[in-house]
Specification:
With 77 residues, the chain is mainly alpha-helical. It is built from three helices and two strands; from the N terminus they run αβαβα. The chain has a domain at 6-56.
Length: 77
């Protein structure tokens, strides 16, 4: 989950209800990550996109002004 504001945080919490065994990784700034951990919205907190390299699903839930900052590429072999 990239972005844990109102929408991203809500999706993370809903994911817990629908798929209780899934591992939810959150990527955001430190303050937001701490809040998400307290709310049990995520299992792992990170400030680097490298943690999502092996993810099955990635949700991008950032403001449009921040979306252009993310360049998600498949790893090259």
């Amino acid at each position: 989950m990239i972005g844990l504001g109102l929408i991203g945080g809500s999706i993370a919490l809903a994911s817990r209800e629908v798929w209780p065994k899934c591992l939810v990784i959150g990527v955001d700034n430190k303050t937001v990550l701490e809040q998400a951990m307290v709310r049990h919205a995520i299992d792992i907190a990170a400030d680097d996109l490298v943690v999502i390299a092996e993810a099955d699903v990635v949700v991008l839930a950032t403001r449009l002004s921040k979306t252009s900052c993310f360049s998600l590429k498949s790893p090259t072999t």
